[in-house]
């Protein structure tokens, strides 16, 4: 799937927010896991849904796919919280992705083998910075829920 634009969402967000984001992003595919498949199907609006832990992946070739992108090709789409109205999309290019996360990892001092507890949702840029920044330096990312926290209401 190299070269595509990713718009991370949190399946625990209210269903109306998820529907609005999936629609506004003009997603062609919703990727999920078995635990969140029902939510994904409910918010997909007729789009294809891929349940990763149920997927059987086959390849016709062992050669890596050829993906042609330019530095300004969109790479990610984050949505604001929507606290002042509808969530607004913030688009970043492929060129922004790697340098931004590697820079963040370096600023935080992440090193190979580090473990980072991630409490922020990956649907917001700070959560993605923690996850991808750590992964950029080959650390272990461990999403955690604070003690006593409950899943968000649908």
Count of helical stretches:
4
Give the neighbour order of strands across the main sheet.
1-2
How many beta-strand segments?
Answer: 6
Mean pLDDT rating: 75
Q: How much helicity do the residues have?
A: 25-40%
Q: Based on CA inertia axes, which overall geometry fits?
A: globular
- Per CATH, what is the topology? Rossmann fold
Compute the CA-based radius of gyration.
17 Å
What is the CATH class designation? Alpha Beta
Unreliable spans are none
Strand content: 15-25%
Structural class of the helices, strands and pairings?
alpha/beta
When the domains are counted, the total is 1
Largest sheet entry = 2 strands, parallel
Q: Label the CATH architecture.
A: 3-Layer(aba) Sandwich
Report the end-to-end length measured between terminal Cα atoms: 29 Å
What is the chains' assembly state? Answer: single chain
What this model shows, in words?
Helices cover 29% and strands 18% of the residues. It is α/β, with parallel strands linked by helices and 154 residues long. The chain contains four helices and six strands, in the order H-E-H-E-E-E-H-E-H-E. Helix 3 (94-108) crosses helix 4. It has helices at 15-25, 37-43, 94-108, 125-136; strands at 29-32, 48-51, 74-79, 89-93, 115-118, 140-143. It has a single domain, classed as Rossmann fold (3-Layer(aba) Sandwich), CATH 3.40.50.980.
Features of this protein?
two-stranded antiparallel sheet; two-stranded parallel sheet; Rossmann fold; alpha/beta
Short account of what is shown:
α3 (94-108) packs across α4. It is built from four helices and six strands; from the N terminus they run αβαβββαβαβ.
């Amino acid at each position: 799937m190299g070269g595509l634009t990713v718009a991370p969402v949190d399946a625990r967000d209210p269903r109306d927010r998820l529907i609005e984001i999936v629609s506004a992003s003009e997603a062609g595919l919703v990727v999920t896991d078995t635990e969140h498949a029902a939510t994904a199907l409910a918010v997909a609006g007729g789009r294809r849904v891929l349940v990763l832990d149920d997927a059987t992946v086959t390849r016709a070739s062992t050669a890596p796919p050829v993906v042609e992108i330019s530095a300004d090709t969109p790479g990610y789409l984050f949505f604001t919280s929507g606290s002042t109205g509808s969530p607004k999309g913030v688009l970043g290019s492929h060129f922004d992705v790697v340098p931004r996360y590697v820079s963040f990892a370096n600023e935080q001092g992440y090193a190979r083998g580090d473990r980072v507890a991630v409490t922020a949702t990956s649907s917001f840029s700070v959560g993605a910075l923690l996850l991808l920044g750590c992964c950029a330096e080959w650390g272990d990312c461990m999403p955690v829920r604070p003690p006593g926290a409950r899943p968000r209401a649908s």
